[in-house]
Amino acid sequence: MENVNKEPYVVGGKSYTAVAINTAAKTGQWIKSKLGDFNSIDVKYSSQDLVTEVDKGSEKMIRKLIMTHFPQHSFLGEEGVEPGPAASALALQNVSHAEYLWIVDPIDGTTNFIHGFPFYTVSIALAYKGEVIVGVVYDPSSDELFVAEKGKGAYVHGKKMQVSADDKLSNSLIATGFPSDRNTALPINLKGIQSIAPKVRNIRSAGSAALHLAYVADGRLSGFWEIGLNSWDIAAGALLIQESGGTITDTEGKPYSLAVRNVIGSNTLIHGELQQELSAAEATGF
Ligand code: IPD
Ligand code: CA
What we know:
Elements (H helix, E strand, L loop, with lengths): L15 H18 L7 E3 L6 E3 H17 L4 E4 L7 H10 L5 E9 L1 H6 L5 E8 L2 E9 L4 E6 L3 E4 L2 E2 L12 E3 L9 H12 L5 E3 L4 H9 L5 E4 L4 H12 L4 E4 L12 E4 L4 H10 L6
Parallel strand pairs: 3-4, 10-11, 10-12
Antiparallel strand pairs: 1-2, 4-5, 5-6, 6-7, 7-8, 8-9, 12-14, 13-14
Helix pairs in contact: 1-2, 6-7
């Protein structure tokens, strides 16, 4: 029979969230199977900004799985973008008019993956007209899948997440990162660490921004901040936090958008105090 339908075949009947969950879980398990079994470590923007063939393979797998269901959607993934802050910002700008945009970090915590340190994730977000509506962060080491849908809450292992009740920095556990951009972002973040560390219960820095944000959503951390992140590090975690009663802004306290690179995510209660301390330390990155 003649094929009159020129449209590509699209697998129907799956929700955005179901596709994000299946994709993250499947890819995460594959990444875990490659622990200690990769050939190349390449340097990107700095000698601390690394990529392996597993990052690239993971992104390819994620793109394929998502595009099977939603071929008309746009896709922004870390490994499809030239390294460095300027290229990341430009890549985001280039897709800013997309109606549906998938924002993907195929391995957040590449350094951890390389060293076999079990704190790395797959982060997948879907934005509709610039607003994140689905966020999934999957940690294959602990087999924990964090998922949020706009307006419907956020869940881990089927349990609804809720941010912590810590109401002061002094009884808070805060996380941050050591950005791989040594020249600009790292010195600013170090200023923040110097100022915040004495004021909080303690600081953690385990090497995956996306997973730290998920931990804020589940109340395991009171807050997180970092200078110089990319949209794919933050997007899924931002929705997890919002849907768990938390707050996510830039380091000046302005509302979160996909373009935010200097971020604070918190349980809401300590947000102002954390923001003010970073401002006072001139560590907001602005
Ligand atoms: C990195 C991680 C790390 C953060 C860096 C990010 P990558 O992402 O999120 O925790 O400190 O700033 O670049 O390179 O592992 O995808
Ligand atoms: Ca990342």
